[in-house]
Write a structure and sequence with these properties.
The longest helix is centred in the first third of the chain and has 27 residues. This protein is 53% helix and 5% strand. Strand 6 and strand 7 form a beta hairpin. Strands 3-4-5-7-6 form a five-stranded mixed beta sheet. Strands 1-2 form a two-stranded antiparallel ribbon. With 500 residues, it is mainly alpha-helical. It folds into three domains: 80 residues, no CATH class; 194 residues, no CATH class; 182 residues, no CATH class. It is elongated, with a radius of gyration of 31 Å.
Amino acid sequence: MIDTVVEIDRMPLTFVTTSSERAELVWRRARDALRMEVPAALGSAIEAAVHDDDSYVFIDRLDVTCAIRSDWAPEVMASAFAHPVARELTAASAGEGVRVFRDRPEYLGAYLGTLVAGSAGAQWWLAEFDGLRPLPVSAAVRTVVVQEGDAAWDALARLTPELLRQVVLTLDRLDVAAMVHSLANGPPTRDVSQLFGALRGAAADSLPGLEHRVLLALVGLLGSPAGPASAGDAAALGALAAIVDAGMHGRLAAAGASATTIAAWCDAVGIDAAGREALLAFDAPEVVAGVLEEPPAGTVSPEADGGALFDTAFTPNGGAVLLAVVLARTGRWHEWQARIARVASAEQVDAFASRVALRVVARALDPSHPSRVERDPVLWRILGGAAPEPRGWTRAPDAVWTALGVNVEERRRATSSWLTAEARELLKAFGRSVPGCQGSSPGYLRTRLLSMPASVSGDGTSARLGRAPFDVLLGLSGLTRASVTLPDGRRLALSEGLGP
């Protein structure tokens, strides 16, 4: 049986007596009686008057009038007051201006929605969560999920796709890990096809990291008849996501279907014991077939010659593709190529110019960790020049940097300053290319317009872009459907619609 709980924030009392001489005495006696006896009396009255369900009902104000005698016993006074309160509560629950949530998950979902919108602290009906106000949004979401357990996971599963995406985007990696680790221990409850289906849906979105895709996939699993996801499901999803990500970046070779292959892939990717155990709990040939034949959105079947695992590869750094287009359109890339041609051999010009372009694009997209973008092997298909080397490239000689205007006597600091200045100019040019975004801050451009995934063809001549948060503005700019000739002569064509 579900317990009914009524919480009253304030209960001001106004007394009207028939005898002014005894008003003070009556008021004190009635006040003390109601203070001591109303909770029990109201509990009994509510059980009879309020429906026995999971609903959360929030009423801003309730006016109740009742008559009591000054010679009644305290419990009789309280009962006379409690019964009309119970009736008014029942009537008000169906009235206007009342917030009703059918159960705990729906109430938690409403809190998560207002939390990411920045308005949770202004809602009186969310007073239960006032203790979370000092926390960052990511920590507040993590706290709710860890403490509420299944109810919070159910709340996440009920959010609209767009709101769920906004919630996931607010989370940092440590909080995502804490949420996933809060799942109940147990083996995987889903089969490989279900796991890949959820992973495909998550890979189609623009998310900060692999952990976020796993979290989104876990939430997607909650709608299946198998019930709540387990720690085994989370471990299997994390391992599969890591293997698929490595495969799409060409770091795994296609191999025959065997448990040995799975173990080797786990070692190559660095999957922990829990992930390995979860994967090996499935039928090994089915796992291998799933990775090879049903990759997430944005990928296709392996190359016929058995080379890289996937021909069309996925990158979370889709914004770099747009920046490369702007860099080529503005002529800066061509200008660097012309300057480098004065000091380098014809065979080296394209490679050096492309690598300089990659460093500028990386600094513009992620100034805190540009090397993360520079080492993305998928971007090397577009920005790597004539001889892409995903794990690094030969340092450009001093003559190249001198030709670009860098003081090589203070090479490291001067190069960093030059790259930062060029990256700043590139972002300004990008902002001018998008309607209404001229003069927008670099942070705004990165988070709202350049945060997206992309799939890139094996020869680097076509890219398909996912959705940015403000993809409508990008659509108006025409950048996501651009076709541009790169300085090395290749034609790069962009299209939209990365997803299932």
